[in-house]
Specification:
The chain is an alpha+beta fold. The chain is about 25% helix and about 25% strand.
């Protein structure tokens, strides 16, 4: 069972859709996808998500998390509540990044959400590992970094367990217990 959904029937479609969101619509002037009332926008990406009214916001949240679980996506706001982020200061301080050449560079920061970039953690389709985006402000460079490579930024090897526990939670299904 996933987020209150039993087994998904063949042909089942989540009430999630791609749309052009205008600021007025994002404030709740669009129809709930579960009934005919006006609803609020529950985003997954900038123009992709669910509209739901106050009566159906729990269903929208459940379906959004179920969809993200299936797609291998974890929202930044959910991920950063994990002890790894809270205890290690990975959000506030620069991190080290391994370049494709194997060189290690400093002065990178984890990319935070912005208006057009939700900065999710995602599972790579190529290698199956979890990654997130990092940015180097002075060069305006962006690059994906593996979550396991966050260990490079930790001075104390005893802290590696927090990264390992976070990866285990991602692997087990971050939203599976919600």
């Amino acid at each position: 069972m996933l987020n209150g959904l039993k087994k998904l029937k063949p042909g089942f479609r989540f009430p999630i859709r791609k749309m052009s969101v205008k600021p007025k619509e994002a404030k709740g002037e669009t129809t709930c996808q579960y009934c005919v009332k006006d609803g609020d926008f529950y985003p997954i990406e900038f123009t992709f998500g669910i509209y739901a009214c106050a009566d159906h916001n729990l269903l929208a949240e459940r379906d959004r998390k179920a969809w993200m679980h299936e797609a291998g996506i974890v929202m930044w706001s959910d991920a950063t509540k994990d002890p790894m982020f809270k205890e290690l200061g990975l959000i506030q301080y620069p991190i080290l990044v391994r370049r494709s050449s194997g060189a290690i560079e400093g002065d990178w920061m984890l990319m935070k959400p912005s208006l057009c970039n939700m900065a999710h953690l995602k599972r790579s389709r190529a290698c199956g590992k979890w990654y997130m985006m990092a940015i180097q402000d002075y060069t305006d460079s962006e690059r994906p970094i593996l979550v396991e490579d966050l260990k490079l930024s930790l001075i104390d090897e005893r802290q590696h367990g927090l990264v390992d526990a976070f990866i285990a939670r991602l692997e087990a299904g971050f939203y599976k217990t919600d």
